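Each lists chain and fold; for instance:
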Amino acid sequence: MNIEAGKILCMQGDTPHSFYIVKKGTLVATFKDEQNETHTKNLGPGSTFGELSLVDGEPLEYTVRAEEECEIEVIPQTLFNETMAEQPIWMKSIISFLTQRNNIAQENKRKKEFITSFPSLLFILAKSNEKLIYIKDVKNELKNFSNLSSLETYKLLLILQDFRLIRLQAESLTLENETLIKLLYDMLRLRAIYKNSSHYILSLTEQAILTAFTKTASEKGELLENGFIAVKTTDLAAQTKHSMHGMTLTKHSLETLLQKRLLQTLPPTATKNNDLPGLEFIEKFSADFDRLLNLLELNRIYPLLDKKLVVSG
């Protein structure tokens, strides 16, 4: 069958009950997503389409138009049924099964692209110099990284809004926490590079101590000249013990936080300040308060992220 350039072979939503094989030339398949945006893909020699309509009577997902003069092979349902009548009774079931498996594979591919597009979205937002961004600009830029539909892009934005990282308006979004967006992007990038499957940024001990520090700093903190907040070791120990049901603050429990420089000791004194193991001569600890708040929030978001992406996709 020959098709003239520009001629439409079938429309999205039609049920032609035929299977098509492109033998020569190129056709263009266009389809509209849930938000009425048009997407395209090319069908060159060797491409096939219409198998769902042939086997299961499903409507076509796209409109097919000849980009140039084309030659295609058409297998109508009548010929398919006649051929199947000459085959073992289980043959049609196998073909239907394989067609369904192909559908599942395509759906899994779509979900995978939805999930893997999330870091790209974070990258776009993280590099923005403006707090107010138009959603259409985000969607257009994301097309450079993936083939997500507008609806799926909006679903990703809703996840960020659920985490209070952005606030969505009708046509724009406002960045609520640019620093945390950048931190989350960096964590996902490092996870991809080092194949780190851990769902937590901080250990339980680190989380407990930093939570106690931020609470103590909010109530009794001292603002230093470098912008850090300092708290007395005894106050931090008391808050840790209260928050963690008797946990004792020790040099060993603080070791990783000091190594990561999330907490710093002020210059030790020659006078004994407390009876805490290994901390007797440390009067105060200091930290970047905003950094700790963002890190604790990142630690809350991170284990929830994968589940939200799977459910939303």
